[in-house]
Amino acid sequence: MGRVQKNPYKFLYEPGTFDGIPVIGTGANLDHSLIPEGFFCYDICQSDMENTSSFFIVQEPIPEKAEGCIISATPIDFRGRAERSLEDMRMSEEAYMMSLNEFTVRHISQEMNETPQNELIQM
């Protein structure tokens, strides 16, 4: 039986970036179906190889192997592969832990602020 997936709204997350894309991360195995529309959740898995401690994210969920998750504001480019190394992720040392609600509100607000004014006016 797979690991129990948890409610993503019950955690605080560490903010960072992955290839310049804003992300938040946790060591919990999250229920992807509860992630808000327009945001993306990727499972973090650990290499099965002995004497290696490498972590990576996978494009398709693997809840039975997930060691955690990252949530991004836009899709991550997997460059034609099924996984990406977490070496491409940068955590924000000076940022504070945040909730999923804080992250989604912040990035929905930024998206609205980046929309050209003429696109906001409907004729």
Number of helices: 2
Radius of gyration: 16 Å
| Average pLDDT rating | 85
Identify low-pLDDT runs.
Answer: 115-123
| N-to-C CA distance | 54 Å
Give the total of beta strands: 8
Q: Domains counted in the coordinates: how many?
A: 1
Overall 3D form: globular
Secondary-structure element pattern, one letter each: EEEEEEEEHH
Percent helix? 10-25%
Described by strand count, sense and barrel closure, the largest sheet is: 8 strands, antiparallel
Structural category = alpha+beta
Strand content: 25-35%
Explain what the structure shows.
The chain is an alpha+beta fold. It has one domain. The chain contains 2 helices and 8 strands. The protein has helices at 100-114, 117-120, and strands at 12-18, 21-26, 40-46, 55-58, 68-72, 83-85, 89-91, 98-99. A hairpin with an 8-residue loop joins strand 3 and strand 4 (55-58). It is globular, with a radius of gyration of 16 Å. Mean pLDDT is 85; it is low at 115-123.
Tags for this entry?
123 residues; alpha+beta; 8-stranded antiparallel β-sheet; 8 strands
List the helices and strands and how they pair.
Elements: E1 12-18, E2 21-26, E3 40-46, E4 55-58, E5 68-72, E6 83-85, E7 89-91, E8 98-99, H1 100-114, H2 117-120
Antiparallel strand pairs: 1-2, 1-7, 1-8, 2-5, 3-4, 3-5, 4-6
